[in-house]
Amino acid sequence: MGVNPINKRIEKIKKELYTTVHILDALKLVWSSGPKLVIANYTLILLLATLPLLTLYLMKLIIDALTDGLALGVLAEALFSQVLILIAGVLSIALVLLVARLISGLIQEYQSQLIVDKVYALLHQKSMRVELDFYESPQTHDTMHRALNEALNKPSTVASSLSQVMHSALSLGAVAILLFTFHWVLI
Questions:
Q1: What pLDDT, on a 0 to 100 scale, did the predictor assign at position 120?
Q2: In the 8-state DSSP scheme, what is residue 151?
Q3: Which of 49, 74, 130, 155 would bridge with 134, disulfide CB 3.0–4.6 Å?
Q4: What does the alpha-carbon distance between residue 27 and residue 126 come to, in Å, rounded to a whole number?
């Protein structure tokens, strides 16, 4: 007999709910590390996700201005100054992106350290609540040692992954909006 498709679907839903609960726990942990840092970081991520598209749009305007000027056979000073302004805009955006990446990296590093400190504090609180018999077993001692070792890397990885997911989602949305403004059939 084969596996019941309803049972397979129920198991899949259970796994998805389990994953969702852990994602929500991760979000709570990141938020509790410093709400102002989270807001600042996600604001910078929004900026980093949308500004490259503005650069693409300015590049399009530069190419359009040059092709229109060449098609008319005119490379007037007005066209040259317009192109220079657009190029200055592209360079300004590149500079803003560079500074935003630097600040975002610093915020993420600081936030990761705060999250690690919070996880260490939680582990310390939990370890003080357990009975001393807990530490007499080599298996439980190893479990605690592993938890302390993983507390250094896992929380910062989770925070970084959440930031990357948000950046990717915002970039995808911004590209969809940009394509929609050019022509809705492209989407």
A1: 81
A2: T
A3: 130
A4: 21
Three-state secondary structure call for residue 73: coil
Assign 3-class secondary structure to the chain.
CCCCHHHHHHHHHHHHHHHHHHHHHHHHHHHHHCHHHHHHHHHHHHHHHHHHHHHHHHHHHHHHHHHHHHHHCCCCHHHHHHHHHHHHHHHHHHHHHHHHHHHHHHHHHHHHHHHHHHHHHHHHHHHHHCCHHHHHCHHHHHHHHHHHHHCCCHHHHHHHHHHHHHHHHHHHHHHHHHHHHHCHHHC
pTM value > 0.85 = no
Give the C-alpha separation, 107 to 129, whole Å: 33
Q: What backbone phi and psi angles, to 5 degrees, belong to 130?
A: -80, 160
Answer yes or no: are the C-beta atoms of 55 and 94 closer than 8 Å: yes
DSSP state of 74: -
Q: In the 8-state DSSP scheme, what is residue 134?
A: G
Q: How many CB atoms lie within 10 A of CB 109?
A: 12
**What pLDDT sits at residue 97?**
93
| Alpha carbon distance 24, 20 (integer Å) | 6
Half-sphere exposure of 133 (CA within 13 A, CB side): 1
Low-confidence ranges of the chain (pLDDT < 70): 1-3, 14, 16-22, 73-75, 135, 183-187
